[in-house]
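Quick one: co-fold with S-adenosylmethionine.
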Amino acid sequence: MEHIPVLKDHVEKYLDLAAGDTVIDATLGLGGHAKMIMEAIGKKGKLCAFEQDERNLKEAKRRLKKYEKQTIYYNDNFRYLKKRITESGIEKVDAILFDLGLSSPHVDEPERGFSFMEDGPLDMRFDQKSSLTAADVLNTYEESELADIFFRYGEENLSRKIARRICEHRKTEKFFSTLQLARFLEKTLPPPRMKKGKKKHPATKIFQALRIEVNDEMNVLKEALEQAVEVLRVGGRIVVISYHSVEDRIVKQFFKSLLIPEASPEEMLYRTHGDPIVESLTKKPVIPSPEEVEKNPRSRSAKLRAYKLLIPIK
Ligand SMILES: C[S@@+](CC[C@H](N)C(=O)[O-])C[C@H]1O[C@@H](n2cnc3c(N)ncnc32)[C@H](O)[C@@H]1O
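Sure, here it is.
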C-alpha cells in the first residue's frame, strides 16, 4: 500500500525548503515526508533523520536508498537532538519537522501492543531496547500514580475509578495482553461514548495514557522543542504535527512562551523586553481536509503548527 505522509502539502509549504538546505526530520517513520524533503533540497541538501524504532528506520533507509549520501541517520530518541546534531559537526539547520506519535506499522503489528483491535502483549515501547512496558505500568504502579497518568495523559474523567479497579483486579490476575485490558475496560467503563456521531472505544484514552507514560513522551517532547529552536538558524522554520490534545497543548504552550517571552536581565541588554523570538506561521492549527481523512483515516486527529525563528536563542 502506498504510504501517505500526513498533511504533505502543508508540511512542504511551511518548511519552505530551498535547494541546498539542511533539514532535521525528527520522526523519520517510513520516510514519507523525508522523501518530499529530499526532492525539495536537491543534491546539495542534507537530511538529519531521527527514528528510535529500529524496524522503521531500516525500512525508511531502504526506501530512501538513493539519497543515502546526503542523509545522516540517528537510531535514537529525538530527546538527544542537539547533542547528536552537534556531534555531526552541524551548528544550525534551516528547517525541522516533528510528525509525532505512532507510525502505521506500530498500529498494524499486534505484537507491539499499541492497538486493542487485535491481541498482543501489553508492550507499547517505541524503542524496544528500553525497559518499561505498559504491563509493568499496570502491574506495578501505585493506584494514585495510575489515576494521575490516566487523567493527565488520557484526559480520562473516570481515572480514579479505573485505577482502583485495576489495582483490585491485579491482586488475582496480572495484566498481560491488549485484548484482556480492552475487555476489562469495557466492563469497568460505561458503554462507548459518542463523539461527533462516532463511538469512541472505552479503551482509547487509557491506551493513549499508557503509551505516553511508557515512552515518557511529554517530557521528551518538551526537551526536544527546547533543543530544536536552539539549532535552528534565524529565519528557519519548525513544523510540528500532533495527534492528540495533550501533545498539541505542549506544542502550543512552548511556542507561546517564545511568542510573548519574558526577557531575563541579560537578554534585556540586546533586545526590548517582550520581543517575540518566533513568528507563528499558522494562526490556527492546520487540519486535514475531509478528502485526506477519507483517504487516510489515521490523519483525522492531526494538527499542524508552524513557526519561524526571529531571534537566535543561543
Ligand atoms: C507519525 S510517524 C512519522 C511518519 C513519517 N513522517 C513518514 O512520513 O513516514 C512517527 C515516528 O516517529 C517515531 N518517534 C516517535 N517518538 C520518537 C522519539 N522520541 N524519537 C525518535 N523517534 C520517535 C516513531 O517511532 C514513528 O516511527
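If it helps, The domain at 8-105+217-309 is CATH 3.40.50.150 (Rossmann fold).
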